[in-house]
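Progress report, Aim 2. The chain analyzed during this reporting quarter is listed below.
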Amino acid sequence: MPSIINLPTFSDDRGNLNVVEKILPFEIKRFYYIYDVSAKRGGHRHKKTIQALICLGGSCEIYVNSGEKEETILLDCPSKCLILDPKDWHTMDNFSKGATLLVFSSEYYDKNDYIDEEYK
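Predicted structure tokens for the chain:
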């Protein structure tokens, strides 16, 4: 099941600072970011990879089907971090102009870890 972590935010007259430290339920082995999106992304689940998604600017929607529940989650604040379990089939869509989605991953890339079939 997907879950939201609210990242600590430190604010003062200079601006805001969000910290990702000792808060994710996994060790980060890889990260990547998605931007200038013109079509739906994702469309898979994993055998063992856990992911943490943060929309750094703008907004996007994450559709998740856990096999038990379907939901669409709006990521529209850089202090909101969405955790996806390996079983969470997901797509990323409806990116606002200029949106950047940062993804932390518990595993290195392995094409054999991907399952392209959505739950029925």
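The chain is about 0% helix and 50% strand. The longest strand covers residues 51-57. These observations will guide the mutagenesis work planned for the next reporting period.
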